[in-house]
Design brief:
Chain lengths: ~350, ~350
């Protein structure tokens, strides 16, 4: 099939909006750069988690929310047993990874039954997982699950507090090897960690497994005809994605330093997907560079838009609404744009 | 009998669950009359939102996850009605009349979009709805309305997120022709209007266009061959669904007494979808009976679980439980409705 490859207009759109927003917001470019670097290490791994399911032909994996929930469960376990410092971070990541593997396997099984409707399914799986997670920590903690740390317990004796402090883990790994130039703080260690995940994904895609994932994504029929077990490959892809998302949320919360127990994971899917698409990815093709370019573009726009709204229309709320429109709108556009092209 | 149960496992589980909840509330000493009163009102105030999914289901456009688009049209109708100074029942009727052109336009454009993504309607509709709601947030914040009871009290710019309808048309329909035999409150006006929409739908589905719509849902290729423009029929069903959703939000808001703008309609599609699925709705085969049974079961569980959750001292569980049932049933429907069978190994 000879087809002229159309240029994806989304990144250009974001570039123009970001520049216009920056111009009207009158923000210092150093400030924006500093903020973008912070977002790059906060959200980087979460966005990277989306790449492998897209390669496997499953579209945007909104179920990375489940990975985020696993991470939060990991943090709550660590807080419950009061494991301090680096050991605590590792324990939280480990516990989260175990949950992610189990959950990813279940999600993968489910998605194999609803082929063609993976995206809406992952979205609803995210909602369902959220409810179950909320039920566990609101109703079972303090009753069935034994509370060992009364500081995170609600005063009624059942349920975890809405907000828990991750202060003991803050400023640990994210202040390692910091470099300060022109007021921009560059956390070298964390940049290395995010790059490590990017490299790992790149490596996975070059291994036999990666080739199998790509074959499944290109054409599940011909992949199974040459003897690939596409169901298992798709499950593996989702497990990897969920585990990476879990590590991503561990990093995100560690960097912020506190956790909104019942809501912190919500919208991680929307913002991560929107960022990836802003970088030029589609629902059929996503690369590492799309993730990084996307985070830079999307978050630049995110940082400048409230101030730009204030300066242009004298109304900061407009900028806030505008950025949530951009998040939803870029996903909607990508869906329609891709599906139209495929017809 | 056993076969019926086997085919409708979730429905039976939910009926059993509702029965258990009901018995528990009896033990807790709840006033049954109050519960029945609430149930009647809630069924009819949410009924049209669930019914609004029917035209699109019948035409094979799937569950209307873009219901917020219709809801926004309804909100526009109500806001304009208030702005123009209409009060009481005429305010409600004005809102319905005003929303129709908006819902028609939105439905037409939305239907055009859905025709592009045929086969993947669910996810595309979800994000069409999400992005439209967030786009309309800009409209609510900047639109040139001026009625002081709708605007932010300080600054006077932008609409409030929640507008009380008490001074406009709050409960104007729910309170119409009320009567209470044996202490049970029957909102006759509300029931009559809902019945009106149901009868219109029944007449429509027996008309030429209704039959064409259903045929398009059942077999697209066959319908095209018999000379029917499937694209057009589908758009028509989307417009119909959108208008019903817009009217549905008006009925809901006047019963509830508050108009909720901005991000309030964002998740509105999911409870309506799950209600129709709990009732046993299944793609193009969904009927009015599924809507009724679904809304009855859904609202019963919602009402009965509140006192039980309060009794065990964890009131948040009501909402969480409702969400679990709601999203669980939609997932179940996706799971059992998918045509691709397991096992390509």
């Amino acid at each position: 099939m000879e087809q002229i490859k159309k240029v994806n207009p989304v990144p250009f759109f974001f570039i123009i909006l970001s520049i216009a927003g920056w111009y009207f917001s009158k923000m210092s470019i150093y400030f924006i750069a500093g903020e973008v670097i912070t977002r790059l290490i906060r959200d980087g791994v979460l966005v990277l988690a989306l790449i492998i399911p897209i390669a496997a032909g499953m579209g945007l994996n909104f179920a990375i929310v489940i990975g985020a929930i696993a991470a939060q469960t990991g943090w709550l376990i660590v807080l419950n047993y009061r494991i301090p410092g680096y050991g605590g971070i590792l324990a939280a990541a480990g516990a989260g990874a175990v949950i992610s593997i189990a959950a990813g396997w279940l999600i993968g099984k489910f998605l194999n039954r609803v082929r063609g409707k993976e995206m809406i399914s992952t979205m609803l799986i995210g909602f369902l997982g959220t409810s179950i997670y909320q039920l566990v920590f609101l109703a079972l903690y303090g009753t069935i699950i034994k509370c060992r740390n009364p500081e995170i317990l609600l005063s009624r004796g059942i349920g975890v507090r809405n907000m828990v402090d991750l202060e003991p883990y803050r400023n640990t790994i994210d202040t390692l090897w910091n470099i300060n130039t022109r007021g921009i703080n560059i956390p070298v260690f964390m940049i290395l960690i995010v790059s490590l995940f990017a490299a790992a994904i790149k490596y996975i895609m070059r291994t036999r497994l990666g080739k199998k994932i790509q074959a499944t994504g290109n054409s599940p029929e011909s992949a199974s005809r040459i003897g690939l077990r596409t169901d298992r490959i798709r499950i593996t892809a989702i497990i990897i994605s969920t585990v990476i998302a879990c590590f991503g949320q561990i990093i995100f919360l560690q960097n912020i330093g506190m956790m909104n127990v019942y809501t912190a994971h919500m919208n991680t899917d929307i913002f991560s997907c929107a960022a990836l698409l802003a970088g030029g990815a589609t629902i059929r093709e996503a690369k590492i560079r799309h993730a990084f370019a996307g985070i830079i573009l999307f978050h630049t726009l995110f940082i400048v838009s409230p101030q730009a709204g204030q300066n242009i229309f004298n109304n900061a709320a407009l900028g806030e609404y505008f950025r949530s429109f951009i998040a939803y709108g870029s996903i909607a556009f990508a869906l329609f744009f891709n599906m139209k092209r495929e017809k | 009998m056993i076969k019926t149960i086997k085919n409708n496992i979730p429905q039976f589980l939910i009926i059993i669950f509702a029965a258990v909840l009901f018995i528990t509330t009896l033990f807790l000493g709840m006033n049954t009359k109050d519960l029945v009163n609430d149930l009647v009102t809630r069924i009819f105030m949410n009924g049209l939102l669930a019914l609004s999914l029917l035209p699109m289901l019948r035409s094979g456009a799937g569950i209307n996850f873009g219901l917020p688009i219709g809801a926004v049209a309804g909100l526009i109708g109500m806001v304009i009605s208030i702005e123009l100074g209409f009060k009481n029942f005429s305010g409600f009727i004005a809102a319905i009349v005003i929303l129709i052109p908006f819902a028609y336009l939105f439905g037409y454009l939305y239907g055009k979009l859905l025709n592009i993504v045929r086969g993947n309607e669910e996810i595309a509709a979800t994000f069409a709805g999400f992005s439209f709601v967030s786009l309309m947030c800009l409209f609510w914040a900047a639109a040139p309305f001026s009625h002081p009871q709708m605007m932010w009290p300080i600054g006077g710019k932008g609409l409030r997120p929640v507008i009380g309808l008490k001074n406009f048309f709050g409960r104007s329909l729910t309170g119409l022709w009320n009567f209470s035999p044996w202490g049970i409150n029957i909102p006759l006006g509300l029931i009559l209007l809902f019945s009106f929409f149901v009868i219109i739908f029944i007449i429509y589905s027996h008309s030429r266009r209704g039959i064409a719509m259903h045929a398009a849902g059942k077999n697209e290729i066959f319908t095209t061959l018999s000379g029917i423009d499937v694209d057009k029929v589908k758009i028509e069903s989307v417009i119909y669904s959108t208008i019903l959703a817009a009217a549905g939000i008006c009925i809901y808001a006047q019963s509830y007494g508050f108009l909720e703008l901005y991000e309030a309609p964002l998740m509105m599609a999911f409870p309506a979808a799950s209600a129709i699925l709990i009732g046993g709705g299944n793609g193009t085969k969904t009927t009015i009976a599924h809507v009724f049974l679904g809304i009855l079961l859904y609202q019963s569980i919602y009402l009965l679980s509140t006192p039980v959750a309060n009794a065990i001292l964890i009131p948040e569980t009501t909402e969480i439980l409702r969400m679990i049932i709601s999203n669980g049933i939609i997932l179940y429907a996706l799971f059992s409705g998918s045509k691709v069978k397991y096992g390509t190994d």
